[in-house]
Design a protein that fits this description.
The protein has 13 helices and 13 strands. With about 450 residues, it is of the alpha/beta class. It has two domains: about 130 residues, Rossmann fold (3-Layer(aba) Sandwich); about 210 residues, P-loop containing nucleotide triphosphate hydrolases (Rossmann fold, 3-Layer(aba) Sandwich). The longest helix has 19 residues. About 45% of the residues are buried.
């Protein structure tokens, strides 16, 4: 097959990608979203088994041009028609829907869906004729438009927290910064509240997104009638300009009316934050959110940029940082209000906790402080009701009150328990079924003798 030239979009294109509800087949959508990224698109990937409401909420909050889905579960007619109807109902009819499902979606069903308003359902025949890159080029050409040409009533009644208005303001700040100065001044003049800003940063793969999800989950349960805005930053690829904005894959608590989330690409090399992150924070403050969380992309040892934008900072790391001397190079240990050693089930976690506490004492000249007074916590964000996560949440609420005066009323209290892996089957018994089978085989052999 002749190689297809990659379409070069004139505008920054953003897509939401996912596999539909009750569908665990995500191999195809993973291939498609990787080609979208390598073609210069910013992709907010949700993973598999996603409901229409989740996808539509995400698409509106992220102010995307397109949604790309796969559906192999047989309910595609109802699923995609409902998605189209929901977008129209919520004033986001400009978002185009693209989908595929191999041979599961029949030709007459493709015709029915496209006549209903779905932009394109790709069939196996399309794949043979166009190729993968040809299909991606078709999607990019259809979505190569600006989502916000000019602002109208977006700054009015912003405290109602309408997702669409907030999303359009952030897009305007990101894509048209020169013309956003006047609306920004109007927002800053009108908004009275000054909610605390929590900055979360750490090394790549430390589990920041999972940890944010667990903090948000506890906030929703413990703190009543308060809302959160989450601004999550991921790096852009220097070579292609594309980006995987994948933090939502790990976040399961955010599909809630009290939560707004926006993913930003850095759109520049070697930085952990987008240059428009402060404008995004100001918009969320003006919208009246009670807490703003900013999560950076993975950082190196010397990066402390987040401290310029937040009131309280949390540094997330893992026990696998190497020799204890490496801790002396981590600049954030000088500035972080709280430190989480996530993935605490890793080997050497207790030694890591001791070493990080020692380094924190040295950096802050608090040599007389007891270990349990040092704000360093071992956590396992992947574990349900983890004691370390509970202690981190309580410490965070207390630190926000101490530094900003904002008191979130939560009933959860600090405990002396530490994170410890809870096994359904203990490691020494992971072969117990094999042991039973082997014992039965040995018995059969003994009988045959």
């Amino acid at each position: 097959m002749q190689q297809v030239e990659i379409y070069k979009p004139k505008n920054k294109i953003r897509f939401v990608t996912a596999a539909s509800l009750f569908d665990g087949h995500d191999a195809t959508i993973n291939i498609m979203r990787r080609i979208l990224q390598s073609s210069g698109a910013e992709v907010i990937h949700l993973g598999h088994n996603r409901s229409v409401d989740e996808v539509v909420n995400c698409a509106i909050q992220e102010d995307v041009q397109g949604i790309a889905m796969t559906s192999y579960q047989g309910g595609h007619i109802e699923y995609f028609k409902y998605m189209y109807d929901l977008l129209q109902e919520r004033g986001a009819g400009q978002i185009k829907i693209f989908a595929g499902g191999g041979g599961v979606i029949l030709p007459n069903e493709i015709k029915e869906l496209e006549e209903y308003g779905i932009s394109k359902i790709y069939s196996p025949d399309d794949g043979r004729k166009m190729g993968l890159q040809g299909m991606i080029n078709d999607m990019l050409q259809q979505t190569d438009f600006v989502t916000v040409k000019s602002l109208s009533d977006e700054t009015e009644n912003l405290t109602n927290k309408e997702n669409r208005k907030i999303a359009r303001l952030i897009s305007s700040a990101e894509n048209n910064a020169d013309n956003f100065e006047a609306p920004l001044k109007e927002l800053q003049k009108n908004h009275k509240s000054n909610p605390p800003v929590l900055g979360i940063t750490g090394t790549g793969g430390a589990g920041k997104s999972s940890l944010v999800d667990e903090l948000v989950r506890r906030f929703l349960v413990e703190v009543k009638d308060k809302s959160i805005a989450i601004i999550s930053v991921d790096p852009s690829k220097r070579k292609t300009g594309g980006a995987l904005l994948g933090d939502r894959i790990r976040m399961n608590a955010i599909n809630n009316p009290r939560i707004y989330m926006r993913s930003l690409a850095t759109r520049q090399a070697n930085l952990a934050l987008s240059k428009n992150v402060q404008e995004s924070i100001n918009i969320c403050k003006a919208a009246g959110f009670d807490l703003v969380i900013v999560e950076t992309s993975g950082i190196g040892q010397s990066d402390t940029e987040i401290t310029e934008h937040c009131d309280v900072s949390l540094y997330v790391m893992t026990p696998e940082f190497g020799a204890a001397t490496q801790l002396e190079k981590i600049d954030m240990l000088d500035f972080a209000d709280l430190v989480a050693i996530n993935k605490f089930d890793k080997r050497g976690a207790l030694d890591a906790l001791r070493d990080v506490r020692k380094q924190y004492k040295r950096n802050h000249n608090i040599f007389d402080a007891k270990d349990d007074e040092i704000p360093v916590y071992g956590t396992m964000a992947s574990q349900f009701n983890d004691p370390g996560m509970n202690n981190l949440f309580v410490a965070l609420i207390n630190k926000i009150k101490e530094k900003t005066g904002v008191a979130f009323e939560a009933n959860m209290e600090m405990t002396s328990s530490e994170s410890e892996k809870i096994y359904i089957i203990p490691p020494e018994r992971t072969r117990y079924l094999s042991e039973i089978a082997e014992a039965s085989e040995h018995y059969d052999e003994w009988v045959d003798k």
